[in-house]
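Re: that chain you flagged

S.,

Sorry for the slow reply, it's been a week of failed gels. I finally had a moment to sit down with the sequence you sent. For the record, here it is as I used it:
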Amino acid sequence: MRSLFKFKDKPIPWVTVALILANVIIHILVFSSSNPEAILSTFGEHPTSIIQGEELHTLFTSMFLHANHLHIFGNMLYLSVFGVLVERRLGHKRFLAIYLIAGFIAALVTSWFWTTYLEPTSASFAVGASGAIGGILGACLLGFPRAKIPAPVLILFLWFLTAFFNFRIFLFSSIPFILLIIYTRKIKIPAIALLLIWFVEQFFIALTIIEPAPWAHLGGFMTGALLYYVLKKEKAPFHKEDRGQRKPPVPKPAAF
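Prediction finished late last night. Pasting the structure tokens below so you have them in one place:
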């Protein structure tokens, strides 16, 4: 089976590529400046302002900012895998619509949760593309759960998760994880495996700590799932990896 990342005979996911480049370039520019925190605060989402109907442009600009290098690495990893998958099947415009709308809704959820359950100050702000990417994951789960992705992506994600719990474990486990990635490089797994891990992780975090981020991510996820049904193509092209090994039906010759 051809790899998800081979572009021969498949539409090039220009929007996914552009989004990744935009996020990475902006991140480099921000953290190359003399005061990254000031830039993040200026263009990040301030819940107290959003609730009052002010600085609404930051609902968009905050989607292209990340708090640190680990933050952007995780988001771009997911976007590079599932963005390619969803954009190729739904097309550039539908994909971009899901990404932006899901990110917008997730940002609104962030402001609502923060002002309802926490006590944000005027200095409190949120950044990140996780809500927008959550929308892409939601669309993928409902539309293409059986699509095949390289197993190393799942392993890389699990390795990435260790950094949140203990950075020393992340560093010391690097060699075993790299060897495992090399060993499984030709193995394919269904997309639903990685999607469910992400969903359970967000749901568990949402139930254990009072933070707006997981609820915003889940809000983006559900928005993307809903938009998939609204924007999906009526007759999507057949993709072998979406339906296991079944072959598309062969049309019967017309009788004259």
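What I noticed first: Residues 92-117 form the longest helix (26 residues).

Talk soon,
D.
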